[in-house]
Structures are given as structure tokens and as C-alpha cells.
Input
Amino acid sequence: MPQESKKYLSGTLEEILADIRHICGNSSDILINRITVGGISCAVLTCEGMCSAAIMTELIIEPLTAVPAQADSSVLFQYIQNYLLLSLDRPVIRNYADLFRLLYSGFAVLAAEGQNFALAYGVQGYAARSISEPSGEANLFGARDGLTETVRTNMSLLRRRMKTPLLKFELSTAGNLSQTDLCLCYMTDRVPPQMLRQIRKELRAVDLDTVLSSGYLQPFLEKCRGSLFDSVSLSQRPDVLCSKLLEGRVVLLIDGTPFALVIPKLFIENFQTLDDYNHKPYYAAFSRWVKYGAFLIAVLLPALYIAVSMHHPELLNSTLILILTDAEQKAPLSLPTETIFVLLMYEIIREAGLRLPKSVGGAVSIVSGLIIGDAAVSSGLISTPMLTMTAISVIAGFVTPDLNAPITVTRLLFIIAGGLWGLFGIGLLGMIVLYNLCATETFGFPVTAPLAPFYRRAMRDVATRVNFHRMQYGNFTVEEYHEQNS
Amino acid sequence: MKKYPEILLFCVLLTGCSSETISDRLYTQSIGLTCDGSLSFYAENFNQEISPPVEGISIAEVLRQEEAQNGGKVFIGHTELLCLDGTCTLNPAEELLFEKGLSPACKVLYARPEEYFQNADHASLIHIIRMSEQNGLLSSTELATALSEWHGIWETALLPVQKPGRNMPGLVLLHKDGNCTDLSEAAAQGMYWLRRNTGSFTMTLQTPGGEQDIFIRNCRIEKQAEQQELYYHVIVRTGTPELNSILQNLIETQCQKAIQEMFLAKADVIGMQDLLEKSGIHPEKNMTVKIHLSVTVQ
Amino acid sequence: MSKIHNHQLTAILFLSGAWSVICIPSLYGNGQLPATAAACLLQILLCLPMLALQQGTFGRTIKNYKIMGMLYIIFFLICGANGFAQLWEAAPPQLLPSSGKLTAAVLIALTCFYTSSAGLRATARAAPIVMGLFILSLIVLILGAWKRADLNRISFQTENFLPGMKIYFSLSGELAAVWVLADQIQNHKNTAVNLYLIGKACFCLLILFFSITAGGRLIYLNGYPFFTLTALSQPLQGQRADALYILVFVMLHIMHTTLQTGIVEHIAEQMYPIAEKWSAPVSLIFMLILAYFFKSDILETIIFYSLPVLIFLIPLSMRIRQFARSLHKKGTLYEKIS
Output
């Protein structure tokens, strides 16, 4: 922010307007309208496109023009503050930093001759995306509304679901230039106070120029660098966020992005979805275990296939080994190279599918699936069993989309380790990954809880999913998992 | 940090270069060993392709020669049959089991490898042995069991053998030094009852009313020892109680035959040594042992 | 270091002990079974003084008597070196990568370098998970071994009782870690330690039992009963499953070595805070060097003779001192009151 913006408002109205023009460099989006209100010379400032013209006219301009004559500008401001409810959000501006922040947030600002402060009115009318179904986090039975880019709308989505005064919102800003609105949400009766203090401290220490997405702030809240797994989660669903708040977690809403940060995150949550609580317990438990198995398959299947085929074929029966031998005979590349090649091709196709316009996206599936896949197998470049293993692994990875990044990277690493040293290499890398996971914690909460350290009571929602008759008793909060440093 | 992509790429390339592919191996289904001065090694793969025998002074050397001959690493992890003719029993087989990865469940056949592999029907013998064991016609004989028996005081193992002119294999008692004793059919069947066998099957009995089938649910043996007197109690459960008495007589006859022939061959393939050691006696090769046999068919 | 939970303590110690059990070099016969049980009971008794000490005693002791801290550091270095020596001698070629034992040792050392840098807290969290996988592999082993087991091979004997006890003690280097880790435990440390001792003894008895019953005479000839047992006990007929134990082998060795390295780091950090950063890599290098030059029977002999001093005599003297001090304080208080 320019130095001058830290100045307080002072001087005549002309001087104030000149300062404003100077600070913003005569930016064309600042609209200054001179108006006489109650016989006093005033100016109404807005930002182009941020305010609704209809709301401005109805709520600001018409009432102001009807103000009777006043003795001076202080009496005028007193009259306006006490007798005119021009808006529900009416902060008082004393310095240029606040003036510009509010102006660019869609407020209208009223400055008067002879006053060293201005009045702001929340009459935001900028174009914003309406509430729609979240793009990710698909659920069969969950709500269809998701967060939007406007932090205040998101606050209302949470408040509508949690009509309790225990739910508290704390607004602040981050980003020296962007002044992005942040909202810290928590339940006052169950949030660990120490964690809350530490989060506030971390957010105050953020010295970025801009905060354009949740990814900008996530590293400041994750204390473990070098960890493969997230200790802070993202969510777009207000129902999920409310369930996290009930467990004593902190939710951070960020203006400009529909993804909220949830602190802390446990590894086991990657396998929990809202649908688990809509199905019967037996099915919910079954689907949980399918997800656990799918994760292991996604990470380990190609590596195990390579390790067993190359280094430990005695683990397979003779019929299977002969089938694999026949299939691999024509393939010119070694098994690990084939597998890495196929996985890299898949990543390229996935990225292409993400970035391409929707109209062209369908062609990607045809080209990749039919042409590349079928042609590669028919020509003998890639063997069918290996392609099958890789495809199963990739599909299994879709079951836990939150773990897509660590699955992709660890899968490749395991393939290299399995190719080089067989099950020995897989064992070594498995221990490294396990230790990496076990060392990951944030604000004293280990991500491996409640498996490590083990909490038997928590297994009712990890190993299985007990019915709500039992769930209603003994609700847990994350504070139980906090590990204090000595 | 900047060097990590290079290291990763190097590792990726290594995975292609450093190890053999799955199709580079020779997966053997049957192997044979014989020692006539030097060790001879025979191998047959799963496509019934028999490679010419190679000779050497050790297992490592014969395997090396076999690999050179076939252009691929010899893999014996799936080998189903080991053919031994008694000229070499212990050390090569142990080395194959503990160091070269031969399965302990591999069947050991008493035969001359060159004759065995020349026989056109030899491929089906593995399956015949397996089915015979499942159907109670042959006592289970595996490499680990045979090696354990050869390391006993009486140094004799029970092995299947292909009888000329007969489809069904028989049993022999093969001494570590190569001496071999054929077991009669009755004794071979008796060995089934006396050794540790599980599984259910149907067998045919000759009764006064003609041939009748009897279903054997399971068979177990209880053993006890009091000094040099050993008690073997065979307990068989059947699904046809009316034929129990006939079966009991048959089993007694067969078991007695088996014990007789075993004693004549100075062998122990029914766990006598373990029983004697359990009762605190150190067994000796020429010691006199008395076996009390009882059979219960329920 | 933050407090660890009692089930984590049990798991860490058990896994470290399990590595030593799987590397038992030879079987002496049925007499080893009662010897193992007796050794376990004796260890429970020997651990009593350690468990009776107040929390934080170990930390205070090594800060006041640095020579004692050095003694423990050397002991844990020897335990870690013994692990590598056992890897060299015990591991059959099928369980190691084709590039050989030295490569395997270096790879494990590099992995332990990372795992020990994660801290004892990460080790404590990983231990129960590894324990779960270990129990699964034991189930596979038992399924395979049970088919071959002949109960007539088992009998109660007392032959080779003392050698059996000696072997069990020389494979119990992690007992000294009880005092260091019990300092960190929140509560019920007696239960945790006793569970570990009994669990390890049960595991050893299980291996010995199946080695004798399923392995038969081959076990006595081949040595290293666990590895021979895995070769002989196959759950499926058509396949050899002992390659799966590579995972067990790797996990246990890493846990064992990481525990020793972590404890050395913890002790060094308490004595000399400046040593925090380099103590782990230096200790791993020391372990490799010691393992290269000394065979495991020499290292096990050192462990056998050091153990009573480290786990019994020193803690007992500390406990007597604490008791004497508490009596003196009571006496002083009584004088003041009277």
C-alpha cells in the first residue's frame, strides 16, 4: 500500500478528494459524485461495478437528497447516523487505507466538507456467482448448495445450519495489497483455545501481498514441511464444514475462493464422506473398508505386481506366471518402464482433460482410451496384464480424490523401489511413507489419530460406523487427540 | 532440492537396466538329480520341453550351465517334482530347498531322471501323485518331509515310485546311501493310515455282499511312548457305520504289513524317533522297538 | 519430547525385541521353551526398580552424571550394531535384494537416517501400525506351520536350560530403553512394560514351538529357526510365500535400529543440546562400523553382561537414593514439627 494511504482523513473536502485521486492515481473506476446534502457540500464515492445502481438510488441518493438543511457537517453526520438507516453495515472511516478497502469491497462512502472522517454504507451489488452444487465432493444424499466466492454469503450458509450463538465468526484481512477478507469460524464451547490462539498468531504473521486462493494460506497453517499428506483440509460443502465445527475444529473462509480451510485434518477423514451417515451402518462400514482397500490398491498394486513378477515370482502360482510371461514376452520395455510410461500418459491425459474446453473434452477420452490404449496393446508396446493393473490402480485412486496428490507421487516412488529392490524396496519405502505420515501434525494434533495414538472409542466411526442411537452419546472433539509438548 | 529430478530419472532408468524381465526366466516344472561321479541336472519346463542334462560338481555350477544352455535364469520356485535316483540325496536337495528357493511342498519321486524324462507319460505323473494323495491311495511325501526323515537315526525316507506297467505309483523306502526297499500295495496303503494325513475321500471295500463304497471323513493317529514300547492308535471316522468293522480289519492288516516291511528295511517313516525322544530315550539305529497297534473306526 | 502412550511403548519395545527373536541363531531343543519363560519372569523382576523410579529420573541422572549417559549411549550403539550384524549373518539370500547384504545394510541405514530424524514421537505412532501388520504376518506363518506341526516333537525338558536363558537375555538389549521411555509415559507404565515382556516371551515361545513341531530335525541343522520355519511353512501348496516375510524383516529391523538411534539422539540432546542435529547420522555410522568389525556373538555377549548393570543395578541404586532422600526429608519435617 502506498505510504500516503496510511494517512488519516483531514483538510477540506477538496483536499480529501485530491488525496483520494492522487493515491489511486486517478483510476477510472473510482466514481466521485458531488452532492449537497442538507445544505452541506458532500461527495459520494463508489467503485465502478461494485455497487448496485438501483440500491444506490433507493437507499443512498433519495434519502440523502431529502435531508433537511443542517447547521454544519457534524450536525449533518449526526442526523444521518441517528435518523437515517441507509444500510445495515455502516462503518466509520478515519484513514485512507480503510477508505480504499471499503470502497473496493463495494461500499459507498460519504465525505462532507469540514469533517475528518467519512461514512461508509454497505450497498454491494457486484456480480457474484449464485449458490450452486459443489464441483467436487460428490454426495448422493447431501445438500446441493456449496460455498461461493463471497465470504459473507458463505457465513450465512454456515449460520443457517448452526442456529446457535456458540458459533462465532471473526473477520479479518490478509494480503498487503489484496486486503482479502478472512473469516475464522469456530464453536466457542469446544474449540481448543490454544489452537485458536496459534491460528490467529499464524494468520497475523502472514506477509503476502495477495491471497487469491486457499492454497496461499494453507502452508502457513500446516506446520510440517516436507509432509506428503495434508494436515489442513479443504471443503466446499457447508454441511461438511458444520460437522467439522461441531468437532471443535476451526474453519477459515476466504473471500474470493469457494474452498474453506479446516484445521486440523486427520488422515482418516480422507475416507469419510457425508453419505456414510445417510446409509445404514452395515453398508457404511462396508464402503469405508472398500475405500481403505482402494487406497492401498491405488498406491501399491503396480509396485507389488512389478516386485512379484521381477523379483519374487514364487509368490504367484504357476498358471498365473505363465500367463504373465506370455504377455510380457512381446513387450520391448521392462515392466517398471512400461508402468511409469502408462502412468505418465494417464497424468498427461488427465491434465489435458482438465484444461481443455468442455466441447473438446470428449475427444480426449476417445483418443486416449481407444486409440492410444488399444493401439499400444495391439502393437505389443504395452502388455495387457500391466495395463490392467495400472488401470485398476488409477480407478482405485478415484475413490479418495483428496489423496490424489500423495497417491500419484507415492505410486511412482513405490514402482521405482519395487523395480529396483522388489519387496525389500517396497518395505523400505513403506516405512518411510509411514514415518512421514506419523510425523505429520499441526498445532499439536497428529494426523494419524485416532489410529496412532490409538483411541478405542473412536473406532466406532473409523473401523465401523455405529448407528445414531449410539453416536448421539459421547460426541468427541478433536481436543482429545491433542498431544502436548513437554 | 534441484538435484531430485535428476536422481529420480536415474532411478527410473535403472529400473529398466538392472534386472531381468519376467520372460527371461526358465520356469521348471520338474527337475532331476543324479550323481555318477559328477552331479547331473535335468530340467523340464511347463511346456513339457526337456532341456539336455548338464553336469557339474555342485548345484551352483549345474544351474549356471543350465542357464547358459537355455539363455535364461533357472527358476525352481514353482518346481512340482524332484526326481532322485538315490545316488545323491541330502546335500544337493537341502541346498535347493534352503538356498535356491525350491518349494518344501515339492514332490520327490524315486526314479532315474534319464528314464523318467524319456517316458512319454511322465507329465501326468505329478497330477496322479497329487490326486492319489487326496484320495487316500498314497501317503503324502514332500521334500521337507523326506529331508527330515533322511536326517533321522534310521536315515530312510518314504518316496513314491513309478511302477512299470502301472499307472498308480507305489512307495519305496529309500536309504540315504541309495539302498531301496519296495513296499507292497498293502504296506503302501498302511503307510497312509500311519503317517500324518488329513482329508476326506471315498474308498471301495470288498464286502461279503460285493463291492461297496465307504466315505472316510478323516483319519488321525495318536501316538504314545513308554520306554521302547510305542503305541499307535489309528482313529478313522466314516460316513457309513455299517461297514466300520470290515474297514477296521482292513486297516489293521494294512498297518501291520506296513510296520513289518518298515522294520525289515530298518527304517522309520512313522515318527518313532520323535516318540522315543519325547519319552526321554536317545534312539539308536540297532535298538529294539515294539509297536502296539490299535485301530478304531467310528 | 511429548508423552507417549502406554500402548505405543509396548509396541515399540515389542517390535524391537521381535527383531532379535527372529534372529535367534540356533535352537537348543525343547529345553529352550521353559528357559524362555523363566527368562521372561526374571526380566519382569529385574525391571521393578526401573519402574519404581519417579518420572524424570533418567533425564536428571544423565544430566548430573554424564558418564552414565555415555554408558547408555555406547550400549544402545552396540544394540544397533548388533542389529546390523544379525542382518549380515542371519538373513538368508532370498530375503535380501540381489545386490547383496552390504547394499541392504546401507539402504536400511539410509532409511533409518530418515526415520530417526522424524523423532521418537513418530516412532511411537508408527509402532502400533507396524505391530498390526506384524500380527497379520504371524497369522500367515501360523497357518502354514500348523499344517506341518507334529505335536509329538514337543516335550517338557530342562536340557540346555541355562544356555536358553542366556540367549534370551543377550537378545533383550531393548530392555535398557524401558528406563528412557518410561520417563515419557503418561500412566500405567508397569502394565505397558509387563505387556511387552510377556508379549515378547510369547512370540519367542511361538517361534520355538513351531520350529520344533513343524521344522523338525531340519531346524537344528540349518540354524536361524525363524528363517528356516518361514522356508518350511507354506500356507499354499503351489507357491512359496516366504518372500512376504521380507516386509516383516524390513519393518522390524528399521523399528529396532530407529529406536536405538532415537534413544541415542534423545540422550545426547539432553546431555549436550548442540548434539541434536548430528547425533543420529553419527550414531548410524558408528553402528555400521561396529557391525562390520564385530560378529553378533561378541556384541550379544557384551549386551548380556551389560544388561544387569544398566537395567537393574543403576536404577536400583537410584531408587535407594531416592528412598533415602525421602526418608531424610520426612525426618527433617518431623524435627521441624516436633
Notes: Chain B has two domains: 24-182, 184-298. Chain B has a mean pLDDT of 84. Residues 244-264 of chain B form the longest helix (21 residues).
